[in-house]
Amino acid sequence: MSAAHPVILVVNAGSSSVKVSVYTVPEAAHDNADINPVLSAHGQIEGIGVAPRLRASMADGHVVADESFPVSQVADHDAAFRLVRLVLSVGLRDNPPVAIGHRVVHGGSDFAQAVRIDDDVIARLEALIPLAPLHQPHNLTAIRAVRKAAPDMLQVACFDTAFHAGHDMLAQLMALPYAYYERGIRRYGFHGLSYEYIARRLSQVAPDLAEGRVIVAHLGNGASLCAMRNGRSVDSTMGLTALDGLPMGTRCGSIDPGAVLWLAQQGMTADAIQSMLYGESGLKGLSGVSSDMRVLLASEAPRARLAVDFYAYRAAQEIGKLAVTLGGLDALIFTAGIGANSPPVRSRICAHLETLFGISLDAAANEENGQRISSNASRVPVLVLPTDEEGIVALSTARMMKACGKG
Ligand code: AMP
């Protein structure tokens, strides 16, 4: 790690994990050149409150920590964040970070781009907790922990909603009484940091496709689709919250709102319904086996098979819907844990798309997770591009750092 270059941290606090990445920010070649932060180390704690495990490594793969902890030592996100920082700070002693960028899931209608964090921003992000109960509280825990330990540290919030901020009114509306739209009850879309990265990456690897009508399938633990025209988001399958759209690991995706009403009328509290829709549904709920796609693919259980079939069916259906928004389809991109690594899931989704879109896969390229997995005969090219949400947060944070004259 070069001591001369400013260092920034990127924090990604999830429901049961805290990930911290260390980037150095080299001088831009000239005033108008874009900044290109370089990953130098990464640390994370998974299994917070259940079976905490810390791992940290340098960008070259050298492991600097791999240790399990008793729950009592890493009971919450605050403790996890302090521990990861402590481990990473060993390498940062001579060159402490000048800025910290946070992945924040919900920016609501207030934030259409990354923002410098102050008390007012924190208050506005707190107000959005009910719209992202699984993620927003943990994002805020990390922000508050830094503010307490280093009040002058430049902190930047980078939003999963921001990439979708330019959506047309038709893509934002839900057919509730209009007053609710004005109160912010509208479709926002999420996974925007991932989609922003993919838009940049696609313009590098296939600039001709990047200018066209593209659907990106971010299929991880959370899952959504984004319709892009010329690298800009025009619609997404996720809406007001990260529950909407595709079925996910433990989240239900789109369901009839009447089902929620029915649950409430049966006497379930709002909290119990929330726990079920976010934590007990999706692949886990349908299969009764696991939320992990690898486990389901290896399972003989009939409902594991049913869950995967439903997942592929729904993903294909929603691709059709977004193709209507785009008025056609020039490329389909798969990304995130399942999208970038699971040939059988991609092939099951694409099998549904053969008749309507003339999509066919090259079986060998798909099996190898190659970059272009469609066959030569396919009417629509299909690509696999691994995502890098932290890289986008690093970039926005480095730009803010320069704008603020730090580093
Ligand atoms: P993410 O949230 O992007 O980390 O993705 C997590 C999901 O990716 C989990 O459901 C994993 O089972 C899934 N996943 C990761 N690697 C593979 C793989 N090789 N095959 C199938 N699913 C995978």
TrEMBL record:
GO terms for molecular function: acetate kinase activity. The active site is at D160. It is found in: Cytoplasm. The record marks H191, R251 as: Transition state stabilizer. Pfam families: Acetate_kinase. The keyword Iron does not apply. It catalyses: acetate + ATP = acetyl phosphate + ADP. Its EC number is 2.7.2.1. Pathway: Metabolic intermediate biosynthesis; acetyl-CoA biosynthesis; acetyl-CoA from acetate: step 1/2. ATP binds at K19, H218, L219, G220, N221, G222, D292, M293, R294. Coiled coil: none annotated. The keyword Metal-binding applies. Mg(2+) binds at N12, E389. PANTHER family: ACETATE KINASE. Catalyzes the formation of acetyl phosphate from acetate and ATP. Can also catalyze the reverse reaction. Belongs to the acetokinase family. This is Acetate kinase. It comes from Cupriavidus laharis.
